[in-house]
Amino acid sequence: MGKGPLLTIIFLIALVLGPGPGAALIDGTKEDPNIWFGIPALYLWVVFWFLVMAGCIVTAAFTVWKDTD
Fold this sequence. Notes:
By secondary structure, the protein is mainly α. 64% of the residues lie in helices and 6% in strands. It is elongated, with a radius of gyration of 16 Å.
């Protein structure tokens, strides 16, 4: 599998898990939210998946999206 399709798969997984069902799984209740390292778990979850998506874009920009000129 090439780098392009792998980055696409990772990006799509991050796109689904960031705001979707993964967020519902790790967030506590409204009365008792989950806290990780003093920060709400939902915030850390979304930031983590954002960084994964940004990493995919930056990696693709430097390795996959090259001009043939």
